[in-house]
Amino acid sequence: MFRRREAVPFAFVAEADRFRSNVTPPPRQRISRSELMSRTLIGLVVAAGLAGSLLFGLPSLESGQPSGQAKQPAASQGS
Question: Global pTM?
Answer without folding.
Answer: 0.47
